Structure formats: C-alpha cells, structure tokens
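Key idea: predict the complex, not the pieces.
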Amino acid sequence: MGGKSVSLAKGEKSKAEKPKGKKSTGARFRDLSLWFVLVAIVSLFFADIFLYQPDPWEEFTRIGWGMVTPFWPDANELLMSALHTVSFALLGVAVSAALGVLLAIWFHWRVVRVFSAVIRSVHEIFWGLLFMQVFGLSALTGLLAIIIPFAGIFAKVFSDIFHQQSSATVDTLAGSSRLSRFFYGWIPQAWPAMGSYIRYRFECALRSSAILGFIGLPTLGFHLETAFRQGDYSEAAAVFWVFLLLIGSVRLWFYKKLLPAYLLGAVFLLPETPPVNASFVWQFFTQDLWPNPLLNGDLPGAMSWYGNVLADEVGPALIQTIAITQAALVLSGVMALAWYPFASRWLVGRYYWVGRFKLLVLRSVPELMLAYLFMLLFGPSALPAIFALALHNGGLIAFLLANHSQDASSQQRLDSPSGLARYFYQDLPQRYPAFLALLFYRWEVIMRESAMMGVLGIATLGFYVDSAFEEIRFDKAFFLILVAAALNVIVDSLSRRLRRAAGLKTPRM
Amino acid sequence: MQGQAMFQLTGASFAHDDQLVLHDISLEIRDGEKVALVGPSGAGKSTLLSLLWKQQPDAVALCPQESGLVDLLSTYQNIYMGGLSRFSTLYNLINLIRPWAVRREEVARVARTLGIEDKLWNSPDQLSGGQRQRVALGRALYRNKSIFMGDEPVSSLDPEQGEQLLMHVLQQHTTAIVAIHSPELAAKHFDRIIALKDGRIFGDWQAAELDLSTLETVYQDA
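Result:
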C-alpha cells in the first residue's frame, strides 16, 4: 500500500500537471491505434481509390430494385446449387476437422506448425484455381480447396484449445502413448469447445463453398456471378437471399444425430470427378508449377525470371494488397466501434435487436460477394475491396463486442452513466482491449481476403494470379501464390508479436 | 439535527436467483443520520444498500464494492466520472479528449485529500489495491451529493488511513449509510447501527446506547 499520509488540507495551489514516466495502458493503446490510423492514411495514397464508374447512383437504384424483386426462373436449379454449396461445406469441414485433430496432436513439432501455417495462408480461391488446372471443375477441386486451408486453421485452433484445458485428467494417464493421452484425455475434455468451433467453421465453410462458385464450381456463387455479370439483379438477389436464408437457418436444419446421413447424402450430391491421369498430375506439380530455367538448373536464368516477376507483378501487387489491407483494417475497426453499441441491449435498450440483425447479415455475407456488388457501383478500384472488407469484418467484430458488452452489464455499477457518456466513459474503454485483440486477430484474414479479391479485377495479388492462370503460365501463378502465402505468414507473426507486446489476450470468438 | 425520512422500507424482501437474500425488512432512515450496516458477509448488506440506493439514485454518492474503475482511463477521468451528470454530454466528451482546466483543479483537490494527487495521470491498473479504493472514493466525493452510500469503502486501506478517510467522507455528507466490517469503527463514528444477519434485521441501535459486546453477538453463530 502506498505510504502517503492523508492530508485534508484544502486550498493549496494544485499541481495537476502530467508527470513523465511509464505510459498508462490507455495511452499505449491510443498510441498504437494512432499508428495504425496513420499507416492507413498513407496507404490511401498508394491504393488505387478512383471511381471508375461515372454514375454509381443509377446502378445503385437498379441493384436496390433488384434486391426487393428477387426472381429465379428455375427453382430446381437454384435448389441444386444450394445443395451443392452445403455438400462441399459439410464434407470439407468433416475431413478437415479430422485432419486438424491429427495435426494438433503433433503440434509441438515445429515442422507440423510450419506446415499448418503454410497451408492455411493460401486462400480457398487460390487452392481452387490451382487444383482446377488438374482436376477440372470437379468435386475433388472444391473439396481440396476447402479441406487444405481449413485443416491448417483447425490444427492451430485445436492446439490452442488443448492448451487451455487443465492437465488434471491427462496427468492420471501418465505413461500411456501420446495418441491414447489425446483420445482418452485431451480430446474428450476439450470436445465442447472443439464442437462449438467446428460449428462456427461450418458457417465459414458455407461462405467459402459459395464463393468457390465465382471461379466456376457449381455452388451458389456461380449463379450469383453469372446473374451479376449479365446485369440481371433480380436473379442475383434471388441467389443472395437464398444464401442468407441458408446461413441463417443452419440451426433449424442441422441435426447432429443426422450427421452421418447428411455426409452420405453430400457424397452422392456432389458432381462427379472425372478419372484423374496420374502422370499428368505428377507433371503438373513437378514441372508445370516451376519456372523452366530452375528445372534446367540454369541459375542465372532462374534469377532473371524471378527478377522479372518480382518487378513486373509482385511489386505493384504487393503495394495494392498491403495498402488495401491496412486501409480496410482501420475502417473495419471504425465500423465495429460505431456499430456495436447499437447491438448491445445494455447501451441502446430494447431496440438492440435491430442492430444485432444488421450485424448478423453483414457477417454472414462473404467479402467477395460484397466486393462484387461494390465493384458494380465503383468500378474495379481499391474502393470496393476496402468497403467490402470493412463491412464484413467490422460487422463480425461489432457482433462479438456487443456480446461482450451485454455479458459485462451485470457486473456494472448501479450508478453507471447513461447515453453517450456511458459509451465513451465506461463501455468503450472497457471493451477496447478485446477490440484491439479481435482486430489484430482479423488482420491476417483481411490480408488473405484482399489478396484473393484480385480475382475480381482489383489489382491485388489475386489479379496477377488469375491472369497468369489464364495465360497458362502456371509457374508464374504458383510463384505469386507463394508470395501471398509468405505475406500472410509474416502478418500472422507480426500480429501475434504485437498482441503479446500490447499485453492482449487471445480473443474469445 | 435529524430531519425528514429519506429512505423507507416496509416489509421488503428480495430474492436473487430464486434465493431469498432479504426477508421482511422494515426501516426508516432520516436526513442527517449516519448509519452503519454491520453483519457477517452474506448477511445481505450489499443487497440492502442497492435497494435503498434505488429510492434516491440522483441524490446519492455511491461507492459500491465492485469499484467500477475503468482501467483504460486515467485516475483523473475515473474521479471526474462522478460529476458526469452535472455537465452536458458535449462538455463531457470534450473533457475526455482534453480535460478542462477548472475540472482538473477540482479533481486534483479531491485527489489531494485522498493522498493520490501524484497518481492523477496514471491509470487504475497501475495502482495498488488501496490506491484503487481511494480512486473509487474520489468518484463518490466528486459527485457532490448530500447522501453517501458505501459498501466497505475503506476495506483495502490500513486501519489508520481507513479511519481518517472514513471520517473525511462522513464529514463531507450530511447523511451516510455505510456497510462496514469493523464493529469498532461503526460504534465510534456513526449515530446508528443496523445489524443484519441471514437477511433479517438482527438489531437496530443508537450508537450511544450500545456496547461492543452486544454488537459482537451478531458475528457469533446461532
């Protein structure tokens, strides 16, 4: 306890200047946030934020009209593609969760950790583009595109969950093999947490499965993209609403007991995979993906090949990708802080469900769909990407913050201030550490997504990947995917370091 | 010196999670009274305080057990929060970005009486338990109300400092209702002592007519 004596003297001149010394937590968070804002502002000078569409309003009214007049000529077709979307997601999550468990068991091996980090750093769309070259538009392509990155994510999260468990149960199993310790101790103990994460991941898989349609797989995204491209906004809206309904109603149609039946059904529903020519696949992965000079051992040739790609494609693509990511990250944060109070009963009272519903919709719509929509309005600049990323991620973070705010309300003082003062003096400062942790946690995801969005024609890494595939320059496409993966691994570790330095806990999702 | 009735309960009961915390409480507290609430932990003191608080929320300076300090804001802001209702929202928001000079003076004066003036620009998470409790007291003092309600407001301070601060707080308010652990402090500094046990009023005495041994029976098992 501080040994200050209590002085009741009054009237002396006060010395209320700010002392120099160790920065308070609030000041550290404020400075950290301001740095990110500064970087985002600088990024805007590099990002291509022009309006390519001369008259966004006209298109806006047409899209708006389409949204309220959804129409689809062939209900059967729409139903099939919805079923395909669910089938890819179900099988993808089932297989990747199983693989994730296996990887998590050996997560103490560095090689497993690195392997998991690498496979999850490549976006589903990139995996899809890659496998499409060898397996065509088949079930195998779609499944691998979901399974591979999801297995990497599951591995990391499951390993985190195991670490959070008490070791009491497992201590009683001392002496048994690692595998028995996991299957008798860690996994049963962690099962509730794993189960709820798998459910969350299933929702993500539905989004991934839907957007794989943008590159041609027979899911909802395919029809959405087609309808959008043809300017038929009523048809696009029909697909969009069906997708939202699908995601919003998971609770109603998903019964755990029927899971085996669902999985079996999914296997039958998926499109057939044509027989694969093994030597062709072998050649693709050992020859086509690598630049010729490298395969021939021509080192100077390889150097100049890499030099050219770095200068012509990687450089400009990296600038756009990073600029969009940083701007979108900060805008997501601003949106989250502006929106979450409206979804917290403790802050806005009984109309909180309106805000909650809005956030649920925003976090359910994949970024790529939003970006496509905005691209029709603004043209293929960085703007649609930034807005789409900020809307989706801001909505997601705001939803979680609103939950935190409501959970904490029972511990608040009786005489808490009301209105704006309650938000700014009490709730916002209390939520801020969790907010920063969530935002940094999403940093890597936003980076992955902004690289991928290039497939829409925005000049991020994905644009160059997509063009290289179109030109059948597999070596270039693959190298660009590796660059995107490396960028992601870097941001992931940067975010982890920053979170640790700022003393932020792993966020509760 | 005692005036009109400020708080009144007649046959009040209160249940929390289907468990009755207070049974059939009837009492009246008048303007100018300094009342100590004593009793073993779990007797219902905090619940009784919150019931009473709800009768006069705008006239009370509250110092609850869950101090409600906001760790991301400075000590200054945490004390200033006691005065939020005196100023307009805009004034409060500007103060959050740049504290008003007048308010800095006022808050510094409160902090000086509490011995934490040098901590004004630290955040509560940089303070010790005792210092945090002083910040919470500072918030209550800065409310500038005539009624003080505290729930063990000096429990984390050493006895001597605790007693001095308690005296100061009692002197600053005309009416006070304080849940307090120490029977000695209760008997020494309050006019009236209400003892709670198992959610019922066990005794209600004027301090002058009470000796400590009677009071100690509250803490003995039945």
